[in-house]
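Page 47, continued from p. 46.
Same chain as before, 185 aa.
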Amino acid sequence: MRSGGCPAGSSRGLRLDPFALPVRYAASDAAADGREREIELHRERVVLRRCVGGMRMALNMPLSAFAGIALRMKAEEGGVSIVLAHKDPGLALPLSVTADADDAMADWRSWGAVLGLPLLVEEEEGTRDAFARLGQVRVARPRPRRRRRSALKKRRPSMLMRRAPGKLTETTPVHRGEREIIARN
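Result:
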């Protein structure tokens, strides 16, 4: 395996910074020799290096090959992990493992924003989108109209509601047959 770079995370758990990409770190892999694989994560691609049966291999995959950023709750351990989810569970990559749920939620949203992938929630039944989507567009209920007589009405300018359009009368000057004056260089 290659070495180099600073080890990511701490001894208590893994916690990568989404704003410090590219990053290189090691993660456990049950199928690999030595039960470890090396991961390079960039903004547009992932390089996964491991050794299986004495044969070294490197998988270079675009981020579009991944399903999204998944949030996993570990009830038995009382922790939360954030994973770069893939259709093949063997290619899922851990990004953060922590016991603090608030930190995990903030990291989860940050990873989704930085990598441009949808946010997912993993449950016993499977993985689902955290928010309703129509293709790449997040769908939500329409917001209610602003009421005129609400508690915040005094903070809004109401001048625009008072103005009326101008009216042409007999005394309004109308300039017909005159040449328009245009400033030229």
